[in-house]
Amino acid sequence: MSLRPASEPVIRVTAMPADANANGDIFGGWLMSLMDMGAGLVAAQRARGRVATVAMDGMQFLRPVEIGDEVSVYGRLTKTGRTSMTIAIEAWRRDRFEDEAVKVTAAVFTFVAIDDTGRPRALGEEN
């Protein structure tokens, strides 16, 4: 049995048929999008405002996700700079009829705090 992160997920959804290819496998891009949204929530909370994704590193698909699976995205802030933040993200799947969850991928996202014109701003500054 895999051990899920100790924190609550930032996003939890059910994989649906519209999220799958013709073979019934969930699109990797759909999963990446969920992870980007989850990391964005963590970054926006820390920045207290608007943020933009500037990089994603180290993603490797470990297991497939199937239609009907519950997908949970966990994120934690690992580093901050003057305008940027690094967030570690993991995605886990759980068959909706089972208890065990399995990690399916992980990545590191970098975000920059931006102002209303889209220019970088210091993390302590208001929008």
Annotate the secondary structure layout.
Elements: E1 11-14, H1 28-47, E2 51-57, E3 70-80, E4 84-94, E5 101-113
Antiparallel strand pairs: 1-3, 2-5, 3-4, 4-5
Verbal overview:
- The protein has one helix spanning 28-47; strands spanning 11-14, 51-57, 70-80, 84-94, 101-113.
- The protein is 16% helix and 36% strand.
- The termini are far apart.
- The model has no long low-confidence stretch (mean pLDDT 93).
- The chain has a single domain (11-113), classed as Hotdog Thioesterase (Thiol Ester Dehydrase, Chain A), CATH 3.10.129.10.
- With 127 residues, the chain is an alpha+beta fold.
- Strands 1-3-4-5-2 form a five-stranded antiparallel beta sheet, with helices on one face.
- It contains one helix and five strands, in the order E-H-E-E-E-E.
- The radius of gyration is 16 Å and the shape is elongated.
